[in-house]
Amino acid sequence: MTLPKEVLKKVKLLEISTRKLVNNIFSGEYHTLFKGQGMTFSDFREYVPGDDVRTISWSLTAKAGKPYIKTFEEERELTMILAVDVSGSTIFGTGPYFKGEVITHLAALLAFSAVKNNDQVGLLLFSDQVEHFVPPKKGRGHVHRILRDLFYYQPRSQKTKISLGLNYLQGVLKKRASVFVFSDFFDQGFDQSLRLLGRKHDVVACVVQDQAELQIPDIGLVELQDPESGEILTVDTSSSAFRQSYALAAKKKKEQRDRLLRLSQVGRIDVNSSANYVDPLIAYFRKRKG
Questions:
Q1: Nearest to 34 by CA among 173, 180, 172
Q2: pLDDT digits (tens, 9 = 90+) for 55-80
């Protein structure tokens, strides 16, 4: 597949900017947090005084007639999955970037950090269906492929069904993974799927939202379009009554979302798409490390 030159240029520019962040700021936080995901069985050897008796292999000891223990080594290799909401609501933003672009930048930061740590990275794009899945692999070339997909892939649907994407991951991920779910999470009924995925994997909900989604500014008469349904509505934002009604509805919607996220019992990072989007990620890693 031949990609447009502007897409390749975006990938290259994003790699340059992300590499600086990884090298100067983020790499240490990532490596410390993911320095080892557990211990895996390595081999057997004869027991010597001082060994932990809890590691004795009783079945092999019985066969051999002398005690043997199991030896373990730290499981260094991490599998990271970037689960990205590509529904219509991500094509919105009042800052330098749309929410979807902020998500791409955050995904790139995590992906290049994983490469530097010699970890595997995979990608899931979802709307109200599974749009695209890239199985986890290592290497900078693989990360370039993931970034090209984030920039270039055209979703088949504009709607959202987060639970469908989470259920798909539950089926395809056989080994424990760290899963970062990027979305505004304005959906219903995703809490059970998120909680079930979190029982087997290390799951973090990255909640990306624009400030204007909570409180609309006074910009006069404007046309607003629902990015998922396509419905267009003309509103007068200079009306204080309208702005108050908007803020009240947005607050209620946010409270419903936050309640589902609490029920999900997974990690959470809140990102304002119109502000600095790197600091919340670093703050979360440092908090977990502490």
A1: 180
A2: 888 999 999 999 998 876 555 568 99
Q: Which has the closest alpha carbon to 54: 66, 69, 43?
A: 69
As a whole number of angstroms, the distance between CA 232 and CA 181 comes to 29
| Token pair listed for 217 | 């500014």
Among 184, 165, 176, 185, residue whose Cα is nearest residue 203: 176
Coil/strand/helix, residue 64: helix
Q: Report pLDDT digits (tens) over 102-138.
A: 999 999 989 988 888 889 999 999 999 999 999 999 9
User: Any residues with CB less than 8 A from the CB of 217 and at least 6 apart, and which?
Assistant: 237
Q: Label residue 248 by pLDDT band (50, 70, 90).
A: very high
3-state helix, strand, coil split of the chain in percent (to 5) is 45, 25, 30
Distance CA 123, CA 145 (A): 10
Radius of gyration of the chain from Cα atoms?
23
Instruction: Say if residues 68 and 47 touch (Cβ distance below 8 Å).
Output: yes
> Domains in the chain, start-ordered, CATH in brackets?
5-34+76-289 (3.40.50.410), 39-74 (no CATH)
The one-letter code for the residue type at 13 is L
